[in-house]
Structure to design on (193 residues):
């Protein structure tokens, strides 16, 4: 998960002096918050509405949390950024409404990294995006390519991405673990044989 969050940051050009919006408070979204902090983003706005998860997001480095969705959520992010939006948007959900929010909160000339597996086949990609000079990027994370860079920070305790695992199940309990995640009773389940 952490490699996916890091990939979202890398492809959206997150670094010092950047403002970032992370859409989604699941394991990937929270990993993206942690990765953005690691890359020294100046401001990290987490869009999520599950308090237990957004609390962890704050511990991971989110400076602001926006629980509202749709136009109301876009408006709040715009207010937080003085009307500009953020340099980078990390879309970690994969739904069409999440993409629409990403387009609403990204500043002109900014980048949207889509790492949430798309659950749609068509999206809003008209001429207005070209005129706003928005980069849309992302995709499957090349996790192995990032391990050498990220693993020392984990092993030396500078970051703790494993905190997204909030339930452990045995092999026999795997179906229960998936149900718990689907029902939002667990963030991420660790399977321990």
């Amino acid at each position: 998960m952490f490699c996916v969050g890091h990939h979202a940051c890398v492809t959206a050009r997150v670094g010092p002096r950047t403002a970032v919006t992370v859409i989604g408070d699941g394991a990937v979204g929270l990993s993206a918050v942690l990765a953005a902090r690691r890359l020294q983003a100046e401001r990290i706005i987490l869009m999520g509405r599950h308090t237990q998860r957004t609390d962890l997001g704050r511990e991971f480095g989110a400076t602001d949390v926006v629980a509202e969705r749709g136009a109301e959520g876009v408006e709040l992010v715009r207010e937080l950024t003085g009307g500009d939006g953020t340099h980078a948007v990390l879309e970690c959900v994969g739904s069409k409404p999440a993409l629409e929010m990403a387009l609403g909160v990204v500043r002109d000339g900014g980048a949207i990294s889509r790492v949430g597996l798309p659950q749609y086949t068509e999206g809003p990609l008209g001429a207005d995006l070209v005129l706003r000079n928005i980069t849309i990027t992302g995709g499957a994370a090349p996790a192995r390519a990032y391990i050498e860079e990220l693993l020392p920070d984990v092993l030396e305790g500078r970051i703790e991405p494993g905190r997204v695992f909030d339930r452990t199940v045995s092999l026999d309990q795997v179906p229960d673990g998936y149900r718990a995640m689907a029902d939002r009773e667990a963030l991420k389940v660790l399977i321990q044989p």
In short: The CA atoms of residues 94 and 118 lie 4 Å apart. The domain at 2-143 is CATH 3.40.50.720 (Rossmann fold). Helices lie at 2-11, 27-38, 51-60, 70-80, 96-105, 127-132, 143-155, 174-182.
